[in-house]
């Protein structure tokens, strides 16, 4: 971090956005030399993470970082500011970009993918827009870069160029653009009309003088307008996008897109509505139970899917609504659980998708029914899958334990026993659709393979893929053993605290 101390602290915000953007340009410039192109990608990812670490250091020291870029309309500018929730998301996205880049190099080469330069370029552009979302200072900035993220990831979804990819891309683009323009833009305009500002403020910008009915309408518009959160029925874009290469699936499900959605909902809840105001809105319970229904319905659908990526896609739909539920419970601890789940779900789910890609590259298998005995040939991959699955389920000693614990405590504090039941039932469903996969791979061995196992049988994916999935699976364990850096950051969010029994006042996050 000493490297960045000579730079004006506020300029680090611009640097976090520009580093991946410049990286994208350099990827195009070096496209004819794959080794150099991939070195540029990895270097850019490492530099970005170091910038985010410097921003994190200033955040812990209480230094406020803000930056206005350009005034688009009178009194409305593209502006950026650093707050702890955005720093948490930026840390997750920038660190996982490094790991995903390592994985993508092995996957794209191992699978002999075409248009690799375009892939790495668009990936970097997507990360650039994610950094802008992380540090958005107002709703206008958030909306603009939310749209940029959608457009920059469209070429990744349609990467294969076949009819299935084009159809998936149309669904992806159609649902996300329709919801953001029809609902989110309307919510932003309604907020500005009501308050005269779009700035994110501690405790929110709404108050008791605003009509509860109007605030209810705005809450529904925000929840459905942020389509990347995949609340039913606006979730179909996510399974449709599974036609993309596995590194893109990792980007969609762990690093950027879906996390941008739930991050945006959580940020709107904390900094636009405020937890105290949110509890007084009639529509809060309505959207809470819709999100709870999304958790259960998508889990049940996941159980019916034989295609591994499809099962993981519906699992993601379910897990995203954990974060939405945590936000809408409107308690300090539940909000902390929702914020923590952004990180714990990211490392768990990216591990599962890395494993799915490894299985496809090494064994050419997509369906779970074909994975009987696969643990003999891919023991490292299937062991990593088991670790990621346990984390997603929320069992010790894996990271997902802590976020689900805080969500459950938050539901109890809000006196929402139905939500507690939903969380418990969902965890059982997680067990039902995830654990049979490694069990089938390790213990359901075909008759012709029932002889002593030897390392000579193994046929793992290329080394970069193995390195990536081992790092993320170890991350699942590390965040269980030592979650304190993340919880310390979450406790800096105004009104949010991991302390049971804390209130949602502005001083509650200390």
UniProtKB/TrEMBL annotation:
Name assigned to this protein: Cation:proton antiporter
Highest rank taxon of the organism: Bacteria
Record field: transmembrane: 12-30, 42-60, 85-107, 119-146, 171-192, 213-231, 251-274, 286-304, 319-339, 383-405, 417-443, 463-482
Family membership: Belongs to the CPA3 antiporters (TC 2.A.63) subunit D family.
CC terms in the record's Gene Ontology section: plasma membrane
InterPro entries registered for this protein in UniProt: CPA3_Na-H_Antiporter_D, ND/Mrp_TM, Proton_antipo_N
Cellular compartment(s): Cell membrane; Membrane
Residues covered by the NADH-Ubiquinone oxidoreductase (complex I) chain 5 N-terminal domain: 77-120
Membrane topology: Multi-pass membrane protein
Residue intervals of the NADH:quinone oxidoreductase/Mrp antiporter transmembrane domain: 136-429
Keywords carried by this UniProt record: Cell membrane, Membrane, Transmembrane, Transmembrane helix
